[in-house]
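Final report, Chapter 2: Outcomes

The project's central promise was a pipeline that accepts a single protein chain and returns its three-dimensional structure in a standardized token representation, suitable for archiving and comparison. That pipeline is now operational. To close this chapter, we reproduce one record exactly as it appears in the project archive, with the input sequence first and the structure output second.
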Amino acid sequence: MVLSVLLLLFSLVFLLSNPTWVCGNGELRALMDMKASLDPESLYLPSWSINGDPCDGSFEGIACNEKGQVANVSLQGKGLLGKLSPAIAGLKHLTGLYLHYNSLYGEIPREIGNLTELVDLYLNVNNLSGEIPREIASMENLQVLQLCYNQLTGSIPTQLGALEKLRVVALQSNNLTGAIPASLGDLGMLVRLDLSSNNLFGSIPTSLADALSLKVLDVHNNTLSGNVPPALKRLDDGFLYEYNLGLCGVGFSSLKACNASDRVNPSRPEPYGAATRDIPETANVKLPCRGTQCLNSSKSSQSTSVTAGIFVVIIALCAIGVWTFAIYRRRKQKLGDSFHISDSHLNTDEAIGAYRKNGSPLVSLEYSTGWDPLADSRNFNGYNQDIFQSLRFNLEEVESATQYFSELNLLGKSSFSATYRGVLRDGSVVAVKSISKTSCKSDEAEFMKGLHMLTSLRNDNVVRLRGFCCSRGRGECFLIYDFVPNGNLSRFLDVKVGGGEVLEWSTRVSIVKGIAKGMAYLHAYKANKPVLVHQNISADKVLIDQRYNPLLADSGMYKLLTNDIVFSALKGSAAKGYLAPEYATTGRFAETSDVYAFGVLLFQILSGKHEITSSIRLAAESSKYQEFMDPNLHGRYFEYEAAKLAKIALLCSHESPFERPSMDAIVQELGNCSSCL
């Protein structure tokens, strides 16, 4: 018995002296409960194990602070198909919760309000339903609330006005109803408020117009009415109000002037005497709320009863009209929402500049002094600022163009990037290449130098860079290029009989000439462009447009990437036979290295095959056309042209770099091909 008591006392002493172990054990249980709910079929979180340690780096998407406490959950875009468990409340030291771009469903658990240290809450672009829990108002450190693009219903909790540190509120594209709470105007640090594409009605509270930090207010595509506070004119393009047919005001383009019916009772406290026939009491009346508890007073109750009696009659009269207009607006929204792009030039990332707690893997990206080579405060000395500004996109434009990086728009992935098809506001189709921050050069000066190089490229055979965007919040940079519809040259190689499109001879010769012109342009020195070696010429990097004109992709990309990523790409080139042999001894790339890759590419176009064997080279040297020319051509080619192209291919892929011709010389030689004229 004495021994048992001693063992018990020893255990208690051990536990009390190791609070981190106690806390960690509870957090582990919470994480395992979350895993069971988020990933019920255990498809995406196999690294989360009951026998593991969340803080040793083995748990995917989990980061801990210096005290060994779980401080960050980053599982955005993982394909999660489950629910958010109430067990999330067990992660009491969480500062960042990033579950956006998944397929989560169900309600947001009210227990989430226990995360009082949380700074970032990203649940956007899921299938969440139910109401926004008012318990969120207990999260006193919250700065970013992202709940947009879900199926949330109910009204916006007035209690959100108690979150003094809140800077970004994004609730757009849900099914929210009711009025805009006037309490949101109490958020002294609020920079961005997006309530667009919901079913909100009533007027725009005066308090919001008086919020000094507010730079973006987006309420378009609702059923708002009444006089727009004139103070909102200070936001310029940051105030978006289209598709609210009941709004009126002076000094706002596309808004009608208010008539007598819009000023039913000028003596009332609503903004500028706007009609409040269909406005609930919470729209323009500040409630004495703090957190989730509201103070009750008999006076306010009596006032509410009288006000409610007046409103009930009027709301009943307006119900049919509002319902009819809502149906009309929703139909219109379905037509336009897919590729709606905000005019705002302030995105979520620009709104985040405050102090972040330790533990988040995005901490260095979210600081105002963190990684953001395109920050507005950046000094672009030595670069053409007009060009940089004209090519800059904001994150909203990129997200809207790609439908929030939908898998349906995914064109391809590599070890360091993903490319999506997108549609810009003007209807033009683009390809958006996302590159993770960890793959980009950490030296911002070097990164800017590389980006400046990319902006200088202008040639008919080089894919045009339309713009760029860097996001601290997502930890990515995006390059926006013209979309090239026919894919890359690889899809025209190894075509089986009757199994794909076969390029005719004249088209092949034209493609060869176009590739040569593009490479000659890269290698040439121009007034605004230095000599540039591509370093990754391959069939995958030659895109074919609707007129079968070839365009070189990823030109100069290595100027933005870390050395290990560049080296990894070179290993891929070597495996496919494009890497010049001298690189193994010199470790350096030159124009002649690109020429070697061009020679291999030319052999591929002639033979129609990916793999270029020694027998193909021998047949080309002996002019045995039947043995190296693509059989899908069925002999429909000019032998003298085939002989000339084969000779060029052999010269370009010569073992010695000194024997290889320049791209300029190749372009001149190709000019004599009749099929190229």
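Archive annotation: Residues 5-24, 264-306, 324-371 have pLDDT under 50 and may be disordered.
This record, like all others produced under the grant, will remain available to the consortium after the project formally closes.
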